[in-house]
Write the structure tokens for this entry.
Amino acid sequence: MAIRIVKTDAPKEKVSADKLGFGKVFSDHMFMMEYEDGQWKDPRIVPFGNLSLHPASTVFHYGAEIFEGLKAYRRDDGGVQLFRPEENIRRMNNSAERMCLPQIDEKLFMEALETLVRIDESWVPSAPGTSLYLRPFLFGNDPFLGVHTVQTAEFLIIASPVGSYYKEGLQPVSIMIETEDVRAVRGGTGYAKCGGNYGASFRAGKKAEEKGYSQVLWLDGVERKYIEEVGAMNVMFQIGDEIVTPALTGSILPGVTRKSCIQLLKDEGYKVSERLLSAEELKDACRSGALKEAWGCGTAAVVSPIGHLMMDDEVFTINNNEIGAVTQHLYDTLTGIQWGRIADTRGWIHKID
Ligand SMILES: *Cc1c(COP(=O)(O)O)cnc(C)c1O
């Protein structure tokens, strides 16, 4: 299916790198197409702008929405590249399956990403740590209120130049274990990247913020015993000489950054375990000094060191509230590959030029 292109006749002013922040500025174009009568129609790039939707549209009432997040990186030689985009495409279709939303042809999806990045190439910033964040999203758009699986849907990709996540170096964050709310349960939508998971997480996030913590550490929704994720990132711990990350039990989002960290660490000979990790085990490891490092990982931050961990009113300090060697190494290696300063030996880089 050919992608139709309608270019804007009113390109916007670019915003300087220090004023970008995250997800506040948008490029000149967006990709969109509609699903109707069992097929996707009219894939096109159009000027970025507002949507007009029926007030009964399924997405507003029953939360039929999924999304993805990946970045286009500017190399030192001026070229532009994506990091493992096929992982995001596959995950989006897994999320769609869970939510009874239509599948997207993988080749068309990739072409849509490439075409949008090419057309808005001048929006890929070049200052250190900056990138063009790509946000594909898909929602049910039936114009009636009956509870039903979706017959019509809309798929869009918007692009937002984003600033460096770390303006003053990698600062460790403080997080607290959430013991009341849960993010997801097995059999639910935890492994799908759907907006509804976020809606359900805001209350705990707000409570943590009020107490001076930047994120919550989620426990599993069934036994409320096992560590799952931190805020909207996957989480990893170095306990003794073992790197531990919660196993993908169905309620955890399978992060591309998580998968990449595991691969890098294994390739370098680290012992990496994907397994159940209880809050009790983590507390014991804090007390005994076995917990060496802890970090969150996700596309936006790459890795985010955890300096303080609050569990049941006890606050533990990790690695002196400083970034640890493994966390720093992962950050340097991943960002090195993403921005093209370290050779990609694993086929993770998808060049746009
Ligand atoms: C997107 C997301 C992540 C991180 O996934 P990446 O592919 O590494 O960006 C982790 N947890 C949740 C809940 C997410 O939505």
About this structure: The two ends are 21 Å apart (CA to CA). The chain has two domains: 4-162, 173-338. The CA atoms of residues 62 and 194 lie 12 Å apart. The helical segments are 58-62, 85-99, 106-119, 195-199, 202-210, 256-267, 279-288, 325-338.
